[in-house]
Amino acid sequence: MSDPVPTPVAPAAPERRVSGVPIRLEHVTKRYPGQDRPAVDDVSLEIAAGETVMFVGPSGCGKTTLLKMINRLIEPTSGRIFLGDEDVTNQDPDRLRRRIGYVIQAGGLFPHMTVATNVGMVPRMLGWEKPRIAERIDELLDLVGLDPDVYRDRYPRELSGGQQQRVGVARALAADPPVLLMDEPFGAVDPITRHRLQDELIAIQGEIGKTIVFVTHDFDEALKLGDRIVVFDVGARIVQYDTPEAILADPAEEYVAKFVGAGATLKQLTLTRVNSLELRPATTATVGEAAAAAVARARAAGDELIVVLDRRGRPISWPTVAEVSRMTTIPATVDEKLPVVGLGSTLSDALDTMLAASQGGAVVLGRRDRLAGVVTVEMIMDVVQRTRQEAAG
Amino acid sequence: MSATQIRRDAAEEVPDEAALGPGASRAGRPSRRSGEWRALVIQPVLVVLGVLAFVLWRATATLSETEARQLGAAALWDSTLRHLSLTAVAAAIVLLIAIPLGVALTRPALRRFTPVVIGLANVGQAAPAIGLFVLLAMWLGFGFWTTVVALVVYSALPVLRNTMVGIQGVDPRLVEAGRGMGMSGLAVLLRVELPLAAPVILAGVRTALVLLVGTATLATFIAGGGLGVLINTGITLSLDSLLISGAVLVALLALAVDWLGRVVEYVARPKGL
């Protein structure tokens, strides 16, 4: 996965920009008094600028301790830490942390401060001018998909878990830090919101190109988000540090193989994205048009389902031909359960989405939410079949 | 996935949560607050009615000369002011000592002293108040300031304990989030820990104030003055009018102080909680 963002992410950022700096850990050790084994034992690790590196491993393996030593929330017992070429091991920790974004579970938002105050925290500490802070807050809320006019003055308790997490990411990015540390940020949200947040993080990272270190215990999350994955064992021993593909194809030790789990072929689905498939065109109908005409088109094309588009060309529902044939005109009803995936979604997510819906497929959105085609369960099964055959042959 | 799609996804989340979280809580919030607001109005009304009833009784009752002198406007005013100043001075000292001490004892470096200090404060409160007053008077002499010292010792615990409990009750992840984004320890204390602990701390302050108003009646035994004098004289001379007047006035004062405390709590509670 040399280029982890295969789709053009936003019109404004057609090419990937790297604003991160490399991180280098040299012989970092953390020993707690009264424990015979060090929590982190002589770890050396280099993380390239602009890469997303996932730390995975069993709980208690020291991955979180290692993460917190990068922003020195935990002081290393010995070893050196570099951001770029700068040795930050002995730098004032408060100053250091203002240059490192930090995201924790549920966002860690201050409940007595509004969304805007939360997001503007670090810029205020850095002494930015008020108008510049306000502008930055709106820009960031926009980046994480929250309408500034609606959410700026809300308190965290008035947001859903997913929205709080988005604000947490916005807050971490406020002063445009080159490095972002994320400590199991999506652990506390429901699976559907988690997938959505993951997709957004991929899209945002495509725009901003930070160096991200992300701790997770969910191997699928690591496969989906990581440019590289570090698999840790006890004492933060690095068992394997490689791309997701390489780890799946060639686990370094029995330990990694166990961690990857039995469904390695199925996990390939997390590495393949919808845009790599040849999408099927669909019969479409526009709101307000005569139903009979749409039914005739569908029958001619041999389709059993019709994608209904609103007047701006965005899919809003996906009824069967039989359902449409009972109507006179195409209704403007929005189907809340419409299975929708983006071009950048993984096949695994697409499959999840399909399983929750009745159409046996999902509508794929392209740029500006226009219909790009449809993806069906059969298409995904084909990919699984092919991967199996490749693995066997 | 395009940027517009992200935006749309975010917007899509709104309808399902309107049913559950913020919508419900937003609707619930004003009614809860207005309920509290009504309670805040009723209490001073009761106090004012109590004062009016007392004034009415005082104007119509037939009293002996001693009673009339003791219950004269000037004497009552002096006693009440004295009582209030005892309470206010002691409260100010308690706040100045107990809140910083409570904060200090939640800092990692000083945490190990917590049991000792809490133990001492417990002794102060558990000791019978009258015993405490008399013992301190034997040591420091009679008068206003001895009374203040005794009151401080007696009422420091609720403020100290609530300060500690309030700060310890702040989600440690918020403290970590604050430190993690580069706030200094002091900034986290002032901007995160204290504001979030404020409701608990203020509840402790109110408890201490009510305790102070009641306990200050004992000042009369060590020449500290206050409304306790009325009660004490009433008991000594078997003058029920004095005894009851003193008791009623102290009760009304305590209610009024409690109300003031509630108003402060209501106003100072951080928004968004």
From TrEMBL, chain A:
Gene Ontology molecular function: any one? ATP hydrolysis activity
Q: List GO terms (cellular component aspect).
A: membrane
UniProt keyword ATP-binding present: yes
The record's EC number reads: 7.6.2.9
Keywords tagged on the record: ATP-binding, CBS domain, Nucleotide-binding, Repeat, Transport
Which top-level enzyme class is recorded in the Swiss-Prot or TrEMBL entry?
translocase
State what protein this is by name: ABC-type quaternary amine transporter
Annotated source species: Geodermatophilus ruber
TrEMBL record, chain B:
Q: Where is this region: Disordered?
A: 1-31
Q: CDD domains annotated for this entry? A: TM_PBP2
Q: Which domain of life is it from?
A: Bacteria
Gene Ontology cellular component list: plasma membrane
Q: Which SUPFAM superfamilies match?
A: MetI-like
Write out the biased-composition intervals (Basic and acidic residues).
1-11
Where is the ABC transmembrane type-1 domain positioned along the sequence?
80-261
**Which keywords annotate this record?**
Membrane, Transmembrane, Transmembrane helix, Transport
What is the protein named? Osmoprotectant transport system permease protein
Provide the species name.
Geodermatophilus ruber
